[in-house]
Protein backbone atom coordinates (compact mmCIF):
# COMPACT_ATOMS: atom_id res chain seq x y z
CA UNK A 1 0.00 0.00 0.00
CA UNK A 2 1.84 3.14 -1.12
CA UNK A 3 1.44 5.65 1.66
CA UNK A 4 3.33 8.93 1.48
CA UNK A 5 4.95 10.41 4.54
CA UNK A 6 5.96 13.98 5.23
CA UNK A 7 9.63 13.04 4.77
CA UNK A 8 8.95 11.04 1.67
CA UNK A 9 6.69 12.99 -0.72
CA UNK A 10 4.68 11.21 -3.37
CA UNK A 11 6.78 10.25 -6.43
CA UNK A 12 5.52 12.11 -9.53
CA UNK A 13 5.51 11.33 -13.28
CA UNK A 14 5.74 14.03 -16.00
CA UNK A 15 2.57 14.63 -18.02
CA UNK A 16 2.42 15.73 -21.66
CA UNK A 17 2.62 19.50 -21.91
CA UNK A 18 4.48 19.91 -18.60
CA UNK A 19 3.67 19.33 -14.94
CA UNK A 20 3.54 16.00 -13.20
CA UNK A 21 1.05 13.67 -11.66
CA UNK A 22 1.52 11.19 -8.85
CA UNK A 23 3.10 7.89 -9.93
CA UNK A 24 0.67 5.78 -7.92
CA UNK A 25 -2.84 4.95 -9.19
CA UNK A 26 -5.36 7.64 -8.17
CA UNK A 27 -7.28 5.19 -5.97
CA UNK A 28 -4.15 4.34 -4.00
CA UNK A 29 -3.10 7.83 -2.90
CA UNK A 30 -3.95 7.04 0.69
CA UNK A 31 -3.72 9.37 3.67
CA UNK A 32 -0.55 9.07 5.72
CA UNK A 33 -2.60 7.92 8.70
CA UNK A 34 -3.52 4.67 6.93
CA UNK A 35 0.09 3.53 7.29
CA UNK A 36 -0.69 2.85 10.97
CA UNK A 37 -3.64 0.61 10.04
CA UNK A 38 -2.50 -2.98 10.01
CA UNK A 39 -4.59 -6.15 10.27
CA UNK A 40 -4.49 -7.35 13.85
CA UNK A 41 -2.59 -10.59 14.22
CA UNK A 42 -5.81 -12.16 15.44
CA UNK A 43 -7.84 -11.10 12.42
CA UNK A 44 -5.07 -12.11 10.05
CA UNK A 45 -5.31 -15.59 11.50
CA UNK A 46 -9.06 -15.74 11.63
CA UNK A 47 -9.63 -17.69 8.39
CA UNK A 48 -7.32 -20.52 9.39
CA UNK A 49 -8.17 -20.52 13.07
CA UNK A 50 -11.88 -20.81 12.38
CA UNK A 51 -11.55 -24.13 10.52
CA UNK A 52 -13.52 -26.70 12.52
CA UNK A 53 -10.52 -28.97 13.12
CA UNK A 54 -8.62 -26.14 14.82
CA UNK A 55 -9.31 -25.52 18.50
CA UNK A 56 -9.32 -21.75 18.62
CA UNK A 57 -8.25 -20.25 21.91
CA UNK A 58 -7.49 -17.07 19.95
CA UNK A 59 -10.67 -15.02 19.59
CA UNK A 60 -12.84 -13.44 22.27
CA UNK A 61 -16.22 -14.53 20.88
CA UNK A 62 -18.94 -14.70 23.54
CA UNK A 63 -20.83 -17.95 23.97
CA UNK A 64 -24.24 -17.14 22.51
CA UNK A 65 -25.51 -20.70 22.93
CA UNK A 66 -26.44 -19.64 26.46
CA UNK A 67 -28.97 -17.07 25.14
CA UNK A 68 -32.76 -17.74 25.11
CA UNK A 69 -32.99 -17.67 21.31
CA UNK A 70 -36.64 -18.78 21.11
CA UNK A 71 -37.80 -15.96 23.36
CA UNK A 72 -35.66 -13.52 21.38
CA UNK A 73 -37.12 -14.53 18.04
CA UNK A 74 -40.61 -13.77 19.40
CA UNK A 75 -39.31 -10.41 20.58
CA UNK A 76 -37.85 -9.65 17.13
CA UNK A 77 -41.13 -10.51 15.37
CA UNK A 78 -43.11 -8.41 17.83
CA UNK A 79 -40.72 -5.47 17.42
CA UNK A 80 -41.30 -5.45 13.66
CA UNK A 81 -45.06 -5.97 13.99
CA UNK A 82 -45.69 -3.31 16.62
CA UNK A 83 -42.89 -0.77 16.22
CA UNK A 84 -41.53 -1.49 12.74
CA UNK A 85 -42.08 2.07 11.47
CA UNK A 86 -39.80 3.43 14.17
CA UNK A 87 -37.39 0.52 14.48
CA UNK A 88 -36.61 0.51 10.77
CA UNK A 89 -36.25 4.30 10.53
CA UNK A 90 -33.33 6.67 11.23
CA UNK A 91 -33.14 7.79 14.85
CA UNK A 92 -31.33 10.20 17.13
CA UNK A 93 -27.53 10.46 16.82
CA UNK A 94 -27.21 10.14 20.58
CA UNK A 95 -29.31 6.98 20.75
CA UNK A 96 -32.82 5.86 21.71
CA UNK A 97 -33.84 7.76 24.89
CA UNK A 98 -35.47 4.75 26.58
CA UNK A 99 -32.34 2.66 26.09
CA UNK A 100 -30.14 5.44 27.47
CA UNK A 101 -32.24 5.38 30.66
CA UNK A 102 -31.89 1.61 30.92
CA UNK A 103 -28.12 1.90 30.38
CA UNK A 104 -28.01 4.14 33.45
CA UNK A 105 -29.78 1.36 35.39
CA UNK A 106 -27.16 -1.17 34.24
CA UNK A 107 -24.32 1.15 35.27
CA UNK A 108 -25.91 1.64 38.69
CA UNK A 109 -24.75 -1.92 39.46
CA UNK A 110 -21.20 -0.54 39.41
CA UNK A 111 -22.05 2.40 41.63
CA UNK A 112 -22.44 4.89 38.78
CA UNK A 113 -25.03 7.61 39.13
CA UNK A 114 -25.56 8.89 35.61
CA UNK A 115 -27.90 11.16 33.70
CA UNK A 116 -29.26 9.58 30.47
CA UNK A 117 -28.45 12.89 28.74
CA UNK A 118 -24.76 12.11 29.19
CA UNK A 119 -25.00 8.70 27.52
CA UNK A 120 -24.14 8.34 23.83
CA UNK A 121 -25.10 5.01 22.24
CA UNK A 122 -22.50 3.70 19.80
CA UNK A 123 -22.03 0.80 17.39
CA UNK A 124 -20.29 -1.36 19.97
CA UNK A 125 -17.88 0.17 22.44
CA UNK A 126 -15.28 -0.13 19.68
CA UNK A 127 -16.94 2.80 17.95
CA UNK A 128 -16.93 4.75 21.21
CA UNK A 129 -13.19 4.10 21.45
CA UNK A 130 -12.68 5.31 17.92
CA UNK A 131 -14.75 8.47 18.48
CA UNK A 132 -13.08 9.28 21.77
CA UNK A 133 -9.67 8.96 20.12
CA UNK A 134 -10.91 11.09 17.22
CA UNK A 135 -12.04 13.95 19.45
CA UNK A 136 -8.95 13.89 21.69
CA UNK A 137 -5.94 12.94 19.60
CA UNK A 138 -3.95 14.87 17.06
CA UNK A 139 -1.13 13.07 15.23
CA UNK A 140 1.80 12.56 17.58
CA UNK A 141 -0.22 12.96 20.79
CA UNK A 142 0.69 10.53 23.54
CA UNK A 143 -1.81 8.22 25.22
CA UNK A 144 -1.12 5.91 28.13
CA UNK A 145 -2.38 2.33 28.14
CA UNK A 146 -1.66 -0.72 30.22
CA UNK A 147 1.01 -3.02 28.82
CA UNK A 148 -0.39 -5.24 27.34
CA UNK A 149 -3.62 -3.61 26.15
CA UNK A 150 -6.72 -4.33 24.07
CA UNK A 151 -5.75 -4.77 20.44
CA UNK A 152 -8.81 -2.85 19.14
CA UNK A 153 -7.84 0.19 21.22
CA UNK A 154 -4.28 0.04 19.92
CA UNK A 155 -5.75 -0.07 16.41
CA UNK A 156 -7.77 3.11 17.02
CA UNK A 157 -4.80 4.89 18.57
CA UNK A 158 -2.65 3.94 15.56
CA UNK A 159 -5.35 5.06 13.11
CA UNK A 160 -5.28 8.56 14.63
CA UNK A 161 -1.47 8.53 14.76
CA UNK A 162 -1.32 8.72 18.55
CA UNK A 163 1.79 7.38 20.28
CA UNK A 164 1.13 4.76 22.95
CA UNK A 165 3.22 4.65 26.11
CA UNK A 166 2.54 1.46 28.05
CA UNK A 167 2.25 1.35 31.83
CA UNK A 168 3.13 -1.89 33.59
CA UNK A 169 0.64 -4.07 35.46
CA UNK A 170 1.04 -6.76 38.07
CA UNK A 171 -1.41 -9.28 39.47
CA UNK A 172 -3.45 -6.38 40.90
CA UNK A 173 -3.73 -4.43 37.66
CA UNK A 174 -2.14 -1.13 36.69
CA UNK A 175 0.72 -0.22 39.04
CA UNK A 176 0.17 3.32 40.36
CA UNK A 177 3.90 3.90 40.85
CA UNK A 178 4.56 2.90 37.23
CA UNK A 179 1.87 5.36 36.14
CA UNK A 180 3.48 8.13 38.17
CA UNK A 181 6.92 7.26 36.73
CA UNK A 182 5.59 7.36 33.16
CA UNK A 183 3.97 10.73 33.75
CA UNK A 184 7.10 12.11 35.40
CA UNK A 185 9.29 10.92 32.52
CA UNK A 186 6.94 12.35 29.89
CA UNK A 187 6.59 15.56 31.91
CA UNK A 188 10.38 15.99 31.83
CA UNK A 189 10.07 15.97 28.01
CA UNK A 190 7.27 18.53 28.20
CA UNK A 191 4.61 15.97 27.25
CA UNK A 192 1.20 15.65 28.91
CA UNK A 193 -0.58 12.56 27.58
CA UNK A 194 -4.09 13.14 26.28
CA UNK A 195 -5.53 10.33 28.38
CA UNK A 196 -4.98 7.11 30.26
CA UNK A 197 -6.87 4.25 28.60
CA UNK A 198 -7.54 1.54 31.14
CA UNK A 199 -9.52 -1.70 31.39
CA UNK A 200 -9.89 -2.09 35.14
CA UNK A 201 -11.93 -5.31 35.29
CA UNK A 202 -10.98 -8.77 33.98
CA UNK A 203 -8.53 -7.19 31.61
CA UNK A 204 -8.20 -8.04 27.93
CA UNK A 205 -5.69 -9.63 27.44
CA UNK A 206 -4.04 -9.85 30.89
CA UNK A 207 -7.06 -11.22 32.80
CA UNK A 208 -6.24 -9.17 35.92
CA UNK A 209 -8.45 -6.73 37.86
CA UNK A 210 -7.39 -3.38 39.26
CA UNK A 211 -7.34 -3.65 43.07
CA UNK A 212 -9.99 -1.48 44.69
CA UNK A 213 -7.33 0.25 46.85
CA UNK A 214 -5.52 1.32 43.69
CA UNK A 215 -8.53 2.86 41.98
CA UNK A 216 -8.63 6.18 43.77
CA UNK A 217 -4.84 6.39 43.61
CA UNK A 218 -4.89 6.02 39.81
CA UNK A 219 -7.52 8.76 39.58
CA UNK A 220 -5.56 11.04 41.91
CA UNK A 221 -2.36 10.63 39.91
CA UNK A 222 -4.14 11.41 36.63
CA UNK A 223 -5.81 14.46 38.20
CA UNK A 224 -2.46 15.66 39.55
CA UNK A 225 -0.89 15.50 36.07
CA UNK A 226 -3.96 16.82 34.22
CA UNK A 227 -4.61 13.62 32.29
CA UNK A 228 -8.13 12.41 31.33
CA UNK A 229 -9.15 8.84 32.15
CA UNK A 230 -10.93 6.56 29.67
CA UNK A 231 -12.38 3.54 31.47
CA UNK A 232 -13.25 0.64 29.16
CA UNK A 233 -15.42 -1.87 30.96
CA UNK A 234 -17.07 -4.51 28.79
CA UNK A 235 -16.42 -7.36 31.25
CA UNK A 236 -17.24 -5.70 34.60
CA UNK A 237 -20.43 -7.72 35.22
CA UNK A 238 -18.78 -11.04 34.33
CA UNK A 239 -17.05 -11.74 37.63
CA UNK A 240 -17.02 -15.41 38.68
CA UNK A 241 -17.51 -14.69 42.36
CA UNK A 242 -20.47 -12.41 41.63
CA UNK A 243 -18.49 -9.46 42.96
CA UNK A 244 -19.01 -6.23 41.06
CA UNK A 245 -16.16 -3.73 41.40
CA UNK A 246 -16.87 -0.01 41.74
CA UNK A 247 -16.27 1.71 38.42
CA UNK A 248 -13.65 4.45 38.27
CA UNK A 249 -16.51 6.60 36.94
CA UNK A 250 -18.40 6.02 40.21
CA UNK A 251 -15.51 7.72 42.03
CA UNK A 252 -14.99 10.58 39.60
CA UNK A 253 -17.68 12.05 37.30
CA UNK A 254 -14.91 13.37 35.02
CA UNK A 255 -14.04 9.85 33.84
CA UNK A 256 -15.10 8.88 30.31
CA UNK A 257 -16.71 5.46 30.68
CA UNK A 258 -17.24 2.96 27.86
CA UNK A 259 -19.72 0.10 28.15
CA UNK A 260 -21.09 -2.63 25.91
CA UNK A 261 -23.85 -5.20 25.56
CA UNK A 262 -21.50 -7.41 23.53
CA UNK A 263 -20.42 -9.64 26.40
CA UNK A 264 -23.54 -9.49 28.56
CA UNK A 265 -26.07 -9.93 25.76
CA UNK A 266 -25.25 -10.20 22.03
CA UNK A 267 -22.10 -8.97 20.32
CA UNK A 268 -23.68 -9.12 16.83
CA UNK A 269 -26.16 -6.38 17.70
CA UNK A 270 -23.23 -3.98 18.05
CA UNK A 271 -24.71 -1.87 20.82
CA UNK A 272 -22.31 -0.11 23.18
CA UNK A 273 -22.14 3.30 24.78
CA UNK A 274 -20.05 6.09 26.20
CA UNK A 275 -20.92 7.97 29.38
CA UNK A 276 -19.17 11.31 29.19
CA UNK A 277 -19.06 14.58 31.13
CA UNK A 278 -21.53 17.13 29.68
CA UNK A 279 -18.69 19.23 28.22
CA UNK A 280 -17.56 16.25 26.13
CA UNK A 281 -21.01 15.07 25.06
CA UNK A 282 -21.72 17.56 22.27
CA UNK A 283 -18.41 16.92 20.53
CA UNK A 284 -18.88 13.18 20.85
CA UNK A 285 -22.39 13.34 19.39
CA UNK A 286 -21.14 15.43 16.45
CA UNK A 287 -18.35 12.91 15.83
CA UNK A 288 -20.88 10.04 16.07
CA UNK A 289 -23.18 11.79 13.63
CA UNK A 290 -20.44 12.20 11.06
CA UNK A 291 -19.48 8.53 11.45
CA UNK A 292 -22.89 6.83 11.30
CA UNK A 293 -25.68 9.48 11.40
CA UNK A 294 -27.23 7.40 14.17
CA UNK A 295 -26.76 3.97 15.73
CA UNK A 296 -29.15 1.28 14.38
CA UNK A 297 -32.64 1.95 15.77
CA UNK A 298 -33.71 -1.67 15.39
CA UNK A 299 -30.84 -3.07 17.44
CA UNK A 300 -31.22 -0.47 20.17
CA UNK A 301 -34.93 -1.14 20.47
CA UNK A 302 -34.30 -4.87 20.63
CA UNK A 303 -31.78 -4.41 23.44
CA UNK A 304 -34.25 -2.11 25.18
CA UNK A 305 -37.02 -4.72 24.97
CA UNK A 306 -34.62 -7.39 26.20
CA UNK A 307 -33.71 -5.32 29.25
CA UNK A 308 -37.36 -4.50 29.87
CA UNK A 309 -38.92 -7.91 29.41
CA UNK A 310 -36.26 -10.48 30.28
CA UNK A 311 -34.37 -11.35 33.41
CA UNK A 312 -31.05 -10.03 32.12
CA UNK A 313 -29.41 -10.27 35.52
CA UNK A 314 -29.92 -14.02 35.69
CA UNK A 315 -28.84 -14.31 32.05
CA UNK A 316 -25.55 -12.68 33.05
CA UNK A 317 -25.28 -15.17 35.91
CA UNK A 318 -25.81 -18.01 33.41
CA UNK A 319 -23.04 -16.56 31.21
CA UNK A 320 -20.63 -16.30 34.14
CA UNK A 321 -21.32 -19.91 35.15
CA UNK A 322 -20.52 -21.10 31.64
CA UNK A 323 -17.34 -19.01 31.54
CA UNK A 324 -16.24 -20.12 35.00
CA UNK A 325 -16.52 -23.80 33.98
CA UNK A 326 -14.46 -23.07 30.89
CA UNK A 327 -11.87 -21.13 32.85
CA UNK A 328 -11.60 -24.07 35.25
CA UNK A 329 -11.14 -26.48 32.33
CA UNK A 330 -8.40 -24.28 30.91
CA UNK A 331 -6.56 -23.86 34.21
CA UNK A 332 -6.67 -27.54 34.97
CA UNK A 333 -5.41 -28.43 31.47
CA UNK A 334 -2.57 -25.92 31.76
CA UNK A 335 -1.59 -27.42 35.10
CA UNK A 336 -1.67 -30.96 33.68
CA UNK A 337 -0.03 -30.50 30.30
CA UNK A 338 2.25 -27.45 30.09
CA UNK A 339 6.02 -27.86 30.43
CA UNK A 340 8.27 -26.34 33.11
CA UNK A 341 8.91 -22.64 32.79
CA UNK A 342 5.34 -21.62 31.85
CA UNK A 343 3.33 -19.39 34.13
CA UNK A 344 -0.12 -17.84 33.93
CA UNK A 345 -2.64 -15.79 35.88
CA UNK A 346 -5.91 -17.00 37.39
CA UNK A 347 -8.66 -14.69 36.12
CA UNK A 348 -11.62 -14.09 38.39
CA UNK A 349 -13.92 -13.10 35.51
CA UNK A 350 -13.97 -12.24 31.83
CA UNK A 351 -12.57 -14.29 28.99
CA UNK A 352 -8.77 -14.45 29.14
CA UNK A 353 -5.67 -16.13 30.55
CA UNK A 354 -2.29 -14.53 29.85
CA UNK A 355 0.43 -17.12 29.52
CA UNK A 356 4.19 -16.64 29.72
CA UNK A 357 6.25 -19.33 27.98
CA UNK A 358 9.84 -20.40 28.68
CA UNK A 359 12.68 -18.06 27.77
CA UNK A 360 13.71 -18.40 24.13
CA UNK A 361 10.28 -19.39 22.78
CA UNK A 362 8.81 -16.75 20.45
CA UNK A 363 5.01 -17.03 20.50
CA UNK A 364 4.54 -15.19 17.20
CA UNK A 365 7.04 -17.40 15.37
CA UNK A 366 5.47 -20.49 16.96
CA UNK A 367 1.92 -19.62 15.90
CA UNK A 368 1.97 -21.19 12.39
CA UNK A 369 3.30 -24.41 13.93
CA UNK A 370 0.53 -24.31 16.52
CA UNK A 371 -2.12 -23.82 13.85
CA UNK A 372 -0.62 -26.75 11.92
CA UNK A 373 -1.04 -28.74 15.14
CA UNK A 374 -4.67 -27.54 15.13
CA UNK A 375 -4.65 -25.09 17.99
CA UNK A 376 -4.72 -21.29 17.77
CA UNK A 377 -3.93 -18.57 20.28
CA UNK A 378 -3.25 -14.83 20.13
CA UNK A 379 0.46 -14.08 20.35
CA UNK A 380 1.51 -11.43 22.85
CA UNK A 381 3.11 -8.90 20.49
CA UNK A 382 -0.31 -7.89 19.10
CA UNK A 383 -1.19 -6.42 22.49
CA UNK A 384 1.74 -4.03 22.65
CA UNK A 385 2.42 -0.97 20.53
CA UNK A 386 6.16 -1.27 21.15
CA UNK A 387 7.08 -4.82 20.10
CA UNK A 388 7.06 -6.41 23.57
CA UNK A 389 5.14 -9.58 24.32
CA UNK A 390 7.08 -12.16 22.29
CA UNK A 391 7.21 -14.49 25.31
CA UNK A 392 3.49 -14.15 26.04
CA UNK A 393 0.26 -15.33 24.51
CA UNK A 394 -3.42 -14.91 25.24
CA UNK A 395 -5.75 -17.86 25.65
CA UNK A 396 -9.52 -17.24 25.43
CA UNK A 397 -11.72 -19.78 27.14
CA UNK A 398 -15.08 -18.14 26.32
CA UNK A 399 -16.05 -19.96 23.13
CA UNK A 400 -14.85 -23.61 22.95
CA UNK A 401 -16.43 -26.28 25.15
CA UNK A 402 -14.43 -27.53 28.17
CA UNK A 403 -13.54 -30.71 26.24
CA UNK A 404 -12.21 -28.73 23.28
CA UNK A 405 -10.30 -26.45 25.62
CA UNK A 406 -8.58 -29.44 27.21
CA UNK A 407 -7.72 -30.86 23.81
CA UNK A 408 -6.46 -27.46 22.64
CA UNK A 409 -4.11 -27.13 25.60
CA UNK A 410 -2.86 -30.68 25.06
CA UNK A 411 -1.99 -29.72 21.47
CA UNK A 412 -0.40 -26.47 22.59
CA UNK A 413 1.74 -28.37 25.10
CA UNK A 414 2.96 -30.68 22.33
CA UNK A 415 3.95 -27.68 20.20
CA UNK A 416 5.73 -26.04 23.12
CA UNK A 417 7.59 -29.28 23.91
CA UNK A 418 8.72 -29.46 20.27
CA UNK A 419 10.00 -25.85 20.42
CA UNK A 420 11.90 -26.62 23.60
CA UNK A 421 13.32 -29.79 22.03
CA UNK A 422 14.66 -27.80 19.06
CA UNK A 423 16.16 -25.27 21.46
CA UNK A 424 17.81 -28.01 23.50
CA UNK A 425 19.20 -29.67 20.37
CA UNK A 426 20.38 -26.67 18.38
CA UNK A 427 20.76 -24.00 21.05
CA UNK A 428 18.80 -20.80 21.13
CA UNK A 429 18.88 -17.28 22.43
CA UNK A 430 17.91 -18.85 25.76
CA UNK A 431 21.32 -20.50 25.98
CA UNK A 432 23.17 -17.29 25.26
CA UNK A 433 21.11 -15.08 27.52
CA UNK A 434 21.72 -14.90 31.26
CA UNK A 435 19.62 -17.46 33.13
CA UNK A 436 16.01 -16.32 33.68
CA UNK A 437 14.76 -15.72 37.22
CA UNK A 438 13.69 -19.02 38.76
CA UNK A 439 10.36 -19.78 37.12
CA UNK A 440 8.57 -22.99 37.84
CA UNK A 441 5.56 -24.27 36.05
CA UNK A 442 2.19 -23.14 37.21
CA UNK A 443 -0.14 -20.33 38.00
CA UNK A 444 2.05 -17.54 39.33
CA UNK A 445 0.00 -14.43 38.69
CA UNK A 446 3.11 -12.82 37.17
CA UNK A 447 3.30 -9.24 36.08
CA UNK A 448 2.38 -9.51 32.40
CA UNK A 449 4.98 -6.89 31.69
CA UNK A 450 7.88 -8.24 33.63
CA UNK A 451 7.36 -12.00 33.40
C1 LIG B 1 -11.48 -4.31 26.30
C2 LIG B 1 -12.43 -4.26 25.15
N1 LIG B 1 -12.94 -3.09 24.80
C3 LIG B 1 -13.82 -2.98 23.78
C4 LIG B 1 -14.19 -4.09 23.05
C5 LIG B 1 -15.14 -3.90 21.90
O1 LIG B 1 -16.39 -4.39 22.23
P1 LIG B 1 -17.68 -4.11 21.35
O2 LIG B 1 -18.14 -5.42 20.86
O3 LIG B 1 -18.64 -3.46 22.30
O4 LIG B 1 -17.31 -3.18 20.25
C6 LIG B 1 -13.68 -5.35 23.39
C7 LIG B 1 -14.03 -6.54 22.60
O5 LIG B 1 -13.48 -7.59 22.71
C8 LIG B 1 -12.78 -5.44 24.48
O6 LIG B 1 -12.24 -6.60 24.86
Approximate strand percentage: 5-15%
CATH superfamily of the largest domain: Type I PLP-dependent aspartate aminotransferase-like (Major domain)
Enumerate the spans where pLDDT stays under 50 for 5 or more consecutive residues.
Answer: 430-440, 445-451
CATH topology of the largest domain: the name is Aspartate Aminotransferase, domain 2
Name of the CATH class of the largest domain: Alpha Beta
Form type? globular
Helical percent range?
40-55%
- Please identify the structural class as seen in this structure: alpha/beta
Number of β-strand runs = 17
Q: Which sequence of strands runs across the widest sheet?
A: 4-11-10-9-8-5-6-7
Folded structure, characterized:
By secondary structure, the chain is α/β, with parallel strands linked by helices. Helix 2 (69-87) packs across helix 11 (297-309), helix 4 packs parallel to helix 5 (151-159) and helix 6 (176-188) packs parallel to helix 7. It has an 8-stranded mixed beta sheet with strand order 4-11-10-9-8-5-6-7, with helices on both faces. The protein has a 5-stranded mixed beta sheet with strand order 15-16-13-12-17. A two-stranded antiparallel ribbon has the order 1-2. The protein is 42% helix and 15% strand. Residues 60, 124-126, 150, 152, 199, 204, 232, 234, 260, 262, 267, 272 line the site of pyridoxal-5'-phosphate.
Short summary:
The chain is of the alpha/beta class and 451 residues long. The protein contains 15 helices and 17 strands. It has helices at 41-49, 69-87, 97-108, 124-136, 151-159, 176-188, 212-225, 248-251, 262-266, 278-292, 297-309, 312-337, 363-372, 402-426, 429-432; strands at 12-14, 20-22, 55-56, 119-123, 142-147, 163-170, 173-174, 195-198, 228-232, 256-260, 271-275, 343-344, 352-356, 375-376, 378-379, 392-396, 442-443.
